[in-house]
Amino acid sequence: MASKLLYIKSDGIQIPVIFEKDERLPLRVVELVFKNSGSASSKKAGLASISASLLGEGTKKEGAVKFAEELENHAINLHAGVGRETFAIDLEAIESEFDFALKKLGELLNDPNFSEEAFNKVKKQRLGQLMAKKNDYDYIAAVNLRKILFPNSPMGEPQLGDEKSISTLKLEDVKQFIKEHLFKNNLIIQIGGKMSEDDAKKTASKIASYLQEGTVKEIPHYKASDKNETITTYEDTDQAYIYFGSPYNMSVDSPKQVLGKIAIFALGSSGFGSRLMEEIRVKRGLAYSVYTRFAVNKTTSYMSGYLQTKLDSQDEAKKEVTKIINDFVKKGITQDELESAKKFYLGSEPLRTETMAQRLNRAFHEYYSGLGLGWSKKELDMIQNVSLKEVNDFIKSHPEIDSLSWSIVTKKKNQ
After folding, report:
1. Domain termination residue (choose one: 176, 209, 242)
2. Can you tell me the distance from the alpha carbon of 17 to that of 225, in angstroms, rounded to the nearest whole number?
3. DSSP structure class, residue 190
4. Residue 220: inside a domain, yes or no?
5. Which one, of 335, 345, 341, 347, lies nearest residue 266 by Cα?
6. CATH assignment of the domain containing 128
7. What are the tens digits of pLDDT across the range 353-367?
8. Whole-model pTM over 0.85
């Protein structure tokens, strides 16, 4: 069964519900997605993520241990997580335990464990996680790239926060974040599994009753920098970690994204078949791996990529990446590269819709982007019929992706 878009009303507020019936297993899943509630909407780096972690500490009445035991005894999975744009709460239970699972969800939303003990525990765990990240050179390079691409904005801050921002967080910050973001008119609900459409609506109404009304804020958009900056971080490493990025002027609801998918597949997201991998690794042996992608969201749209190389090859590898992307923008892709992209997207489609979770996730993104449910099918038709001229005209219309900035973690030559 294909996913359907339903609506319910709660206290006069209309809430969208994405539903898919699947009776193959006696399982029910729910995801509460709160818009404009991710790290991009956080006033302090790491606040959104810490807020999600604190919801993992159960209710104030029962505490983390007892709450977790009750979930485990009833085979219930309940988890909160955060992205750049959204805050999500996932619930999964077998059909016979689903009513109890909804009860526990209600308890968590109405009585989260906003105690100093739980808050300090979560902060301590996060600080330990950040300490471990000091030796993760991919993480360091990625964080520094975002600082260049999105300076002085929440998008330029690490999603996990840093030692300084986490240390200064107060429990009141979390309480305020939850209050300002987790409310019913900021909500999209996904529901799937063994239930009828009426059951799905009743479930959604029950969930909405747990939430208050709030003030919806417009999600901000942050433009990636085109200033061609470079940050170099020196560490005791045996190889260089090179991350690069640039602006990509694309809106999340544009049908032209399909042309971008073909273009970036040919350039750097198709593994050993990509131009970057062929030129950088196969022909020149300059990198262990190299990859690039377009990230198109409501908050941002940009190109990013990375490569890992020997220390004595980093300058040459960087130079070749620059040359390849410059040539790509000027000349576009070949007919063979277009056919390869078509075969991949058309041939791998069944793998992207195997599970109910995949189908629900796809339907959510179709709705969330504004393109509408069923967009993916239209996109496949466009891929099948697109011409080389259309793709190359599109690539040439985006010279901004050639404005590369770099974040490099490497070793000083005299170390």
Report:
1. 209
2. 36
3. E
4. no
5. 341
6. 3.30.830.10
7. 888 999 999 999 999
8. yes
Q: Which of 76, 78, 65 is nearest to 118 (CA)?
A: 65
Whether 225 contacts 148, CB under 8 Å = yes
Same domain, 261 and 320: yes
205 and 107 part of one domain: yes
**Does 285 lie in the same domain as 203?**
no
* pLDDT one-digit tens code per residue, 338-389: 999 999 999 998 888 888 999 999 999 999 999 999 999 999 999 999 999 9
Q: Which residue has the tokens 């977790």?
A: 68
Identity at 382, one-letter amino acid code: M
Asked whether residue 219 is assigned to any structural domain, the reply reads no
236/68 Cα distance (integer angstroms): 41
Full residue range of the structural domain in which residue 328 is found: 230-410
Domain count, the chain: 2
Written as one string, the DSSP assignment of 47-69 is HHHHHHHHHTT-BTTTHHHHHHH
The full length of the chain comes to 415
241 Cβ neighbours under 8 A, 6+ residues apart? 137, 138, 140, 141, 306, 308, 408, 409, 410
Cα 224 to Cα 301: distance, rounded to the nearest angstrom: 7
